[in-house]
């Protein structure tokens, strides 16, 4: 995964949750990417660190409580694709949530939640960046 410093500007965050080798994905209920599955996440709020934003977004979209997250990578969307259209690049910091507590339910702008193994993601509209991160992390399952 990339090692971009968190001091670099990021516009949004996402939180990766893994249970029994399955990843928590939410169906986006709003644009951009409405109807696509992605890791829970969203935009940072004023004065919020990327880590705080990841923990907050996970709670708001799924009801899961994480007290610690670790940085994985930063994805830059150039918005040249239909799955994530916007007028300017958007930098998304991706974090791994450690031992999130609770049962995931769709809330805020998430239309539904899904626990999917990498091999099951092909049956859904899953964003390219999510597939890349999930494939990378799934390799560690086999170790």
From TrEMBL:
Annotated keywords: Hydrolase
Keyword Chaperone: no
Cofactor: Mg(2+)
Pfam families: NUDIX
One Gene Ontology MF term: hydrolase activity
Family: Belongs to the Nudix hydrolase family.
Listed name of the protein: DNA mismatch repair protein MutT
Organism whose genome encodes this protein: Phyllobacterium brassicacearum
């Amino acid at each position: 995964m990339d090692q971009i410093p968190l001091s670099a500007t990021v516009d949004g965050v996402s939180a990766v949750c893994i249970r029994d080798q399955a990843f928590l994905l939410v169906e986006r209920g709003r644009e951009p990417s409405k109807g696509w599955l992605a890791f829970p996440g969203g935009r940072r709020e004023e004065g919020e660190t990327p880590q705080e934003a990841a923990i907050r977004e996970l709670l708001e979209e799924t009801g899961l409580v994480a007290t610690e997250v670790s940085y994985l990578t930063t994805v830059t969307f150039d918005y040249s694709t239909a799955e994530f259209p916007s007028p300017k690049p958007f930098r998304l910091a991706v974090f791994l949530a450690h031992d999130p507590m609770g049962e995931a339910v769709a809330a805020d702008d998430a239309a539904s939640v899904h626990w999917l193994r990498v091999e099951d993601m092909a049956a859904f509209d899953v964003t390219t960046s999510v597939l890349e991160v999930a494939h990378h992390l799934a390799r560690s399952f086999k170790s």
